[in-house]
Amino acid sequence: ILAMETKGADALNVSLRAGELTTLPGITSQATSLGAVRVAERAYEIAKEGEASGRVVSAVLSDAEAAMGCWRFADDERMLVELACGVNLALCYGGRLEKALGRPVHKDETVVIVVCGGSNVNTEMLANWRLEHGHLNDEGVTNGVVPSGKTAPNGA
Hints:
The chain is mainly alpha-helical. It has helices at about 10-20, 40-55, 65-75, 85-90, 95-100, 125-135, 145-150, and strands spanning about 1-5, 55-60. The protein is about 40% helix and about 5% strand.
């Protein structure tokens, strides 16, 4: 399990690094819809046990990377998602999944990315994110082929 958070809404990651359940002073990330200043005690315990056994990895990306995940997913799949989801989707681009895992992903492995939420996003927001963080756009594109084009059934 790869537990993704954006910087500034990273209560789980901060707690795991501190070795104790920690409360953030506030949410500073733009990804506020799912943000919590403190994770539930049980969630922290499960993540801590999972991290110790190697079954859970906690990773943090920037708001810019989450925004890139949103617009790239919109380009690739024609679906709008908000930043809290875009941080998961950013893993599909620029080698971020391998970096977060600390190892290559093998062809026989199955990767499932939870895609949720679109109530806190619109096309104007996507356009603004693309203008602000467009420098991230070319990461992960090889010869004009996007990840969804490689895996879509029948090339659809």
